[in-house]
Amino acid sequence: MSQSDQDRDHRAATIAHLNDKLRLNPGTGWVMTSGVHAKGVAFVAHAIAAVGAFNDFTDGDDLYGERDFGALRLAGERLFWKIDYYDQALENGSPDPADEALTRRVLTLMLASEY
């Protein structure tokens, strides 16, 4: 494996770790669409738990190994969640998603029908 491959793999692993940290700690940095909220408090609670328990990362959905997207079924609904990387002001994309000091992550949870 070349040095650039090792660097890329290390970067992806760092981003995946930071993404898992957000995914496993709902609260600040999580956004839910109106469709998810409309399903009620119990559904939202189950959806949050399902995102935290999600571990079905496949090459098709996790092409770069960053664990930044997932699709799941819950109570007959298909849901998507995704993580986006912003600068600290939440105005532009992050200059380096592997650098926690430069990046604010936002996890969006939505019904697939809202995509």
Give a written overview of the molecule.
By secondary structure, this protein is of the alpha+beta class. The protein has one domain (3-114). The chain is 34% helix and 23% strand. The protein has a 4-stranded mixed β-sheet with strand order 1-4-3-2. Strand 2 and strand 3 (77-86) form a beta hairpin. It starts with a helix and ends with a strand. The model has no long low-confidence stretch (mean pLDDT 94).
Structural topology:
Layout lengths: L2 H21 L6 E3 L1 H5 L2 H13 L15 E6 L2 E10 L17 E8 L4
Parallel strand pairs: 1-4
Antiparallel strand pairs: 2-3, 3-4
Feature tags:
four-stranded mixed β-sheet, 34% helix, 3 helices, alpha+beta
Q: Indicate the low-confidence ranges by residue numbers.
A: none
Classification by helices and strands: alpha+beta
Q: How much strand?
A: 15-25%
Q: Please tally the β strands and state the result.
A: 4
Radius of gyration: 15 Å
Order of secondary-structure elements: HEHHEEE
The strand line-up of the biggest sheet is: 1-4-3-2
Helix content: 25-40%
* N-C termini distance: 38 Å
> How would you characterize the largest beta sheet?
4 strands, mixed
Shape, please?
globular
Into how many domains do the coordinates divide?
1
Rounded mean pLDDT is 94
* Helix count from the secondary structure assignment: 3
